[in-house]
Amino acid sequence: MKFLQLASLFGAALAVPAADLDARQTCTTPKLRKDWAKATTAEKTAYLNAAVCVTKKPSRLGLVNATVQDDFAYTHAILYNQIHNFAAFLPWHRYYVMVYEKALRDCGYTGTAMYWNWVNDWAAPSKAAVWHNVTGFGGNGVETNPNDIRKRVIDGPFKNWRPQFWHSSVQPHALSRDWSTAQNGDPELRGAFYSPTAMVPVNAKTVFDEFRAALEDGPHAAVHGGVGAADDNRGLGDMGFNNASPSDPLFFLHHTQVDRLWWLWQQQNPSARTMEYNGNSPSLPDGSNGPPVSLNDKLPMGGLAAEGVVRDYMDVKSAKLCYKY
Ligand SMILES: [Cu+2]
Fold first, then answer.
1. Per-residue model confidence (pLDDT) at position 145
2. Which of 14, 115, 127, 186 is the most buried (most CB within 10 A)?
3. Ligand 1 mean position, distance from CA 91 (Å)
4. Per-residue pLDDT, 283
């Protein structure tokens, strides 16, 4: 704004038109990220075509027999302890989803990341639009190989997709999902853990790192486990308790929703919360608390993209992000 005032004062004396500077340095037209359930068939098809393309393009990191999708899973797996269970979880995954959105664009997509609003689907998550076999990501996995405990996804656009990584090791396998079933008191796909009622105490947190912990450990973990692991101890699907969970393209709809919930929390008090960042870094090897986090902390992205700085990924309308929900 200050610049525009100067521009009007000095008028023609300026060498660079104000509009050009705005486009480079600020976010003037944030792109809207949509709810998968409300997107049109054409929008879903465009997204899925690009997402399939990402699972077919050769690795840019030079990983053997791997694709760009594997690059994402690998990067998430090797950085795992630097990006989970403390404050960086939220800005790191915000940046990471943006890098994936760029990968979709490299595959011809012109839209934005989309989200699975699982809060709306909590009562019957298996009926969610994201599982559709044509306009979604395919459904639950089934046992197709008695020698493999994983359950293979056999419908939808990713039925032939073979991720390279399982946890942090090379272990080529068919994309797998193993929805938790409504048994033994465990609700279908763990829906009760991300119902509107379950979200109340999460959204009521008033300190950033308490909100982050409640969101990460509660609904975020429930969706990973609900989609990817009927058995917590083994993890039978890619989305389950698996460092390489981004092998399932659905990961990015899940994490865009996590990102949106953070944004909604920030919007409850934007002036205080947009740049609110606190808590401790991971514990040190001797077991003592890590140092307090800072907005100047780095966000490593492996070879996927340039290293980021937390402060650039706090505000969705920052120059590096520029989107809205
Ligand atoms: Cu993660």
1. 85
2. 115
3. 11
4. 87
Residue 84 alpha carbon to ligand 1 centre in Å: 6
**Residue-range definition of the domain harbouring residue 18:** 1-30
**Please, is 37 exposed, middle or buried when counting C-beta atoms within 10 Å of its C-beta (0-12, 13-18, 19+)?**
middle
Q: Are 42 and 50 in contact (CB under 8 A)?
A: no
**89 and 160 belong to one structural domain:** yes
C-beta separation of 94 from 321 below 8 A: yes
Same domain for 10 and 142? Answer: no
Q: Are 318 and 312 in contact, with CB atoms under 8 Å apart?
A: yes
Residue 209: what residue type?
Answer: D
Q: What total of structural domains would you count in the chain?
A: 2
Distance 15 CA to ligand 1 centre (A): 45
Instruction: Specify whether 164 is located in the same domain as 88.
Output: yes
- Whether 22 and 131 map to the same domain: the answer is no
pLDDT per position as a tens digit, 253-303: 999 999 999 999 999 999 999 999 999 999 888 988 899 999 999 999 999
